Amino acid sequence: MNLDNIRVEIRPRSPFEAIDLGFVMARQWFMPLWLMWIAIALPFSLLAHLILFKHLIIAGILIWWLKPVYEKPLVFWLSRALFNERSGYKDIVRQYFKIIKPRLFADLTYLRFTPNRSFMMPVAILENLKGKEYSIRTKVLGRNQSAGIGLTFICIVFDVILNFSMLVIIFFILPEELRWISFGDFIYSKGTIATVLGSFVSILAMSIIAPFYVAAGFCLYINRRTELEAWDIEISFKRLMARKAEKRKTEARRIRAINKAANKTISMTLGLIFLITSSFIIFSNSVHADSNISISKKEASLVINKVLEHDDFGKRKTETAWKLKEFDKIDFDFDLPQWLKNFLESFGETFKWTRKIPEFAGILLEILAWILGGLIVIFILYKIGQNKQWFQYYRARPKKQPEAPSKLFGLDVSERSLPDDIINKVREFLKNNEIREALSLLYRGALVKLINDFNIQIPASATESECISLVKSKREKREISFFQTLTLIWLAMAYGHITPEKQTIEEVCQNWQIIYGK
Amino acid sequence: MNEQDQFNKLTLLENEVKKVVKGQDNVVREIIICLIAGGHALVEGVPGLGKTLLVRSIAAAINGAFNRIQFTPDLMPSDISGHMMFELKTNTFKVRKGPVFCNLLLADEINRAPAKTQAALLEVMQEQQVSIEGKSFGLKSPFFVLATQNPIEHEGTYPLPKAQLDRFLLNIFINYPDVKDEEEIVKKVTINSIGDKLDVSSIKPVLTVDQVVELQQFAATLKTDDMIINYAVRIVRATRESSGIEIGAGPRGSISLLRASKANALLKRNTFVTPDDVKEVAPAVLRHRIKLTTDLEIEGYKPDDILNDILKDVDAPRT
Question: Which of B243, B274, B312 is nearest residue A461 as measured by Cβ atoms?
Fold first, then answer.
């Protein structure tokens, strides 16, 4: 890392200025960054779609999940480009696995949802730290840093907006003749084509946002390092040194030129005198200059102390906080009888274990909090499952196979509701002049036969003539004719209150026995 | 007239109209249901499907007076109901009755006239009487209005508000006939006739207007089980509870559904109403009385789609 070659003005910036700088960098180098992202993500996407063709939604989720894999090379490229060193695509490809390897497992598992990803990625890739070192480093870098989280949320919002807008545009620029799906279905319940299209639009949206997201996170990281490691001061000092060295060189060149001219035009004597004089001048200047640089330690410490006394450096702040006292080191500033001291000490020794209580309670509370959180999530998911209609809007019902109803037209049409010998029972009703009951049993019996024996599915909303239509489509002529006659008699009885002749019912009974037997 | 006579007369009327109006059997049936139920019909369909021919045919078949009003933006209420005019000869004011004084009125393209003119006609439909200069004039019975609307051109139209649409018993869709029927229509109109004048001369009067009134009275007396009333009410109430409907049908919808069901039962030669009679007429009775939610309208759903779902949801009557 050579700070002399840095391409941006290094100075401490507010996090938002740093993000802004990142966006400027992303705009400046958008094409190489975008191409790199898409070149890595596209093969993954194609492969995911081919393998998971029947589960396109899972393919979409997988592509999204692997985002850190596509973003890490961008950080690497940016880190080189910042110091005026352009990495070629070949270099990236050659080093690809080396670039993505640091903390890859963590990035794709338990750290996948970390909202500070763009800020933390450079730590893993550029500093190549592992384990405890990494966590200490990220803790130091991440102190009071929340802009990275904000950046992630902003990018998510823009990603969604971009994604949705592109889908809407694609749908509305399609000529109406080519629209195979309604807009609602296109967005909410997609078919295969719409899902694949949606997936690729989503990849495009991600690819557009990614350079901005990565560059802004990278700049936040650089800004934080500038703050902690005083890069700006280092650069300033280097520039001062360079300017000084340049000044000295210029002076020496000037003197050499004068000497040359003097040699040519003035006599040797005068030249000698001039030389001596000028040498004296040079000597005295250089001595003076050197004395300015190399001051003694004592003088330096005086100067440093003087500088540190300045308001900018000399601020002292007192902060107070609670800290648990160690029982052993409690210093009683009052005199206690020896026996009491002994008692207190033995008491403290006996209940030493109680010191662990706060720690234990803390762990317990943490576990409880996790359980509670889990329960809340389960409860929310359960409620969502129970109230799916909140997320649905009216859609034409899918055709489903209706289950065999236990009741139709108010009649119990379950098999157990029928007597063993229907016709005998009907004749019994007829004897007692219970015509309606007799007809009801016949009609009910016919429906039960159709539902249970011939598997005709009759919905609860079906009217009598709809039942006839169903029978017509499934049964043979003789049975259709029988059922039609029975239905007409039943309709006249039920709604017209027209009681049929007993003889008519007897004929129906005979036909019943011919068709259904018992 | 006994029951059979009533049935026969009605069948005769239906067959007579079908002789001229080809390929629109359902429409003919629904118009007759509307006439027998004593209601008015709003017919929607593109021009040239035989709406005028249909009304003329019915008028000829019942030997009734027929009038037609072409609704235009400058039509005034008095152009419909009539007005007082001063007669110089007798030096008195005389009433000049408007075209509503008839048995069958065709209100063509009703949505082309402004609201106050529409309201004048709808008031006449409801009250069956006309007030001219403070004097009331009753209309002859039967009085049947068939209003038409063109569903394709909405520029410069005044859409009927829901409250006024409610006055129509049925909203009937008239569609293109199939190939065979269309061929027959073309043949009939072009062979041995000049221009494309509507020829209803082949229609014989099979009923008188008085007999139509008798049929209307007979339909009103058909047996209607309480379960049928309950079924009709449940269907109408379901329109108020459906998630896809913003405004459902009111009690007038239930009343209309039952009236139309009775006429339908009569047309099927029944002396009592069955659930089928209710279910068959429900879409025509309810489609103009409901307002779909905006998102469904945007998605291109039609009232009939939702009504079909409702009819699948509502259990058939329990006896």
Answer: B312
Asked if A463 and B274 come within 8 Å (Cβ–Cβ), the reply is: yes
Closest C-alpha to B215, from B247, B170, B168, B263: B263
Number of domains in chain B: 2
Cβ neighbours of A236 (radius 10 Å): 13
Q: Enter the ipTM.
A: 0.78
The predicted model gives A28-43 an average pLDDT of 93
Do B37 and B158 lie in one domain? The reply is: yes
Beta-carbon-side half-sphere exposure of residue B28 (alpha carbons within 13 Å): 25
Residues B200 and B245 reside in one and the same domain: no
pLDDT, tens digit (0-9, with 9 covering 90-100), for B235-276: 999 999 888 898 899 999 999 999 999 999 999 998 999 999
- Torsion from C-alpha of A244, A249, A251, A252, nearest 10 degrees: 140
Domain range for B181 is: 1-205
| Interface check A139 vs B, CB under 8 A | no
Which DSSP string do the residues of B194-225 spell out, in sequence order? Answer: STT----TT----S-HHHHHHHHHHHHTSB--
Q: Which of A464, A496, A497 sits opposite B276 (nearest CB)?
A: A464
* Distance, CA of B112 to CA of B153 (rounded, Å): 10
Residue B217 belongs to some domain of the structure: no
pLDDT band at A407 (very low <50, low <70, confident <90, very high): low
Same domain flag for B103 and B16: yes
pTM listed for this prediction = 0.54
Q: Find chain A residues with C-beta within 8 A of B316's C-beta.
A: 408-409, 460-464
Q: Please identify, among B155, B171, B205, the residue that sits at the C-terminal boundary of a domain.
A: B205
**B205, B230, B264 — which closes off a domain?**
B205
Q: What tokens appear for B42 in the block?
A: 């709003």
CA distances from A482 to A300, A368, A386, A514 (A): 120, 70, 46, 10
Return the CATH fold of A407-516: Four Helix Bundle (Hemerythrin (Met), subunit A) (1.20.120)
- pLDDT tens for residues A457-466? 888 888 888 8
